[in-house]
Design a protein that fits this description.
The structure is a single chain. By secondary structure, the chain is an alpha+beta fold. The protein has one domain. The radius of gyration is 15 Å and the shape is globular.
Length: 153
């Protein structure tokens, strides 16, 4: 069982109740003013590691109700969240899944990865919330495209 597919399933358990829908390895929600997406990305080096990326755009700039994370105006990986610790990020490695066993791994990922992501996303529904997220809950490594800088200023 692959870590990225298991992670996407676990994320669904906490994101679907707050209005997110799944498209492949992505969970997304179109809010009244902010579009949010969680992308589970398999490592391009084939080393059994995956990454979790968060993206945000203005809802009125998302066409057809869908926009991939790499085209969002604000993007960062979960390691930029202040609530994410380096030891928790090790859970995103296939070796950890294999070593811990599926049930223990699912419990740990739910507690240390999925639930903190859901808390952040549940509290980010408009531009003011997105500003607060960037000001108080994110430590760095954030890409903010020019079209969003003035609005988030």
């Amino acid at each position: 069982m692959a870590v990225e597919s298991e992670l996407a399933t676990i994320l669904g358990g906490v994101l679907k109740p707050i209005g997110f829908r799944r498209r492949r390895s992505n969970w997304f929600r179109v809010g009244t003013s902010v579009y949010s997406i969680v992308n589970v990305q398999k490592s391009p080096w084939g080393d059994g590691v995956c990454y979790v990326n968060l993206g945000f755009s203005l809802s009125d700039r998302v066409t057809g109700g869908w926009q991939p994370e790499h085209k969002c105006s604000v993007r960062f990986r979960i390691d930029a969240l202040r609530s994410t610790r380096p030891e928790h990020l090790r859970l995103l490695d296939q070796e950890m899944l294999d070593a811990m066993g599926v049930e223990a791994w699912r419990t740990a990922v739910g507690e240390w990865i999925a639930t903190p992501i859901a808390r952040v996303l549940a509290s980010t529904s408009d531009l003011a919330d997105l500003r607060d997220l960037l000001d108080s809950k994110v430590s760095g490594g954030v890409a903010v495209l020019h079209d969003a800088r003035e609005l988030l200023g």
